[in-house]
Specification:
This protein is α/β, with parallel strands linked by helices. The chain has one domain: Nucleotidyltransferase, domain 5 (2-Layer Sandwich), CATH 3.30.420. A five-stranded mixed sheet has the order 4-3-2-5-6. A two-stranded antiparallel ribbon has the order 1-7. Strand 3 and strand 4 form a beta hairpin. Helix 2 packs across helix 3. It is globular and about 50 Å long.
Length: 200
Amino acid sequence: MEKPHEEHVVAVKRILRYVVGTRGYRLHYTKGEEDCTLQLIGYSNAHMAGDPDTRSTSGVIFFLGGSPITWQYAKQKVVALSSCEAEYIAAATAACQGIWLACLLSDLVGKKIGAPELKVDNMSAIALTKNPVFHDRSKHIDTRYHYIRECIDRGMIVIEYVATELQLADILTKALGRVRFQELHVKIGIKDLSGDSIKA
């Protein structure tokens, strides 16, 4: 707002086109089986220098019973020097959210549930979460983000690799082409209840 440029106008127009083209879109929740296991599955992703004016961005989405229950997009509070670091910071943020959700869910159902599963599409970031030998390369990262290592060691969260094409948090961090955008809408559980197609 302080110093708008042409690229900001283009971004605003893109947002308005998206809003107009997706007015009929809603999250569609289906009734699951009552005896299904309560398993939290999360996806975390980052876009290195995704915000041209500031820093990298993180996207996190958690599913319960195949339906999204929480999602978040935010600028990272520290400067990442590589895509590995940006993904590591996003995973640490997701781990905190997943552990909190697991505690909340346990309180609601009156029994302990399994550790949330977090899916990350960057092998280097996964190695950084599990191997303290990498600490020399990451000691400049804020200590709070290394909390994810303790969570993994204590079995509070499980981190797994997911291929980039199956990374559902992509929709939160990047401007996507029409085909990929529609594909992720379907996988997340968003449906067009108006019958209109995406115009964005």
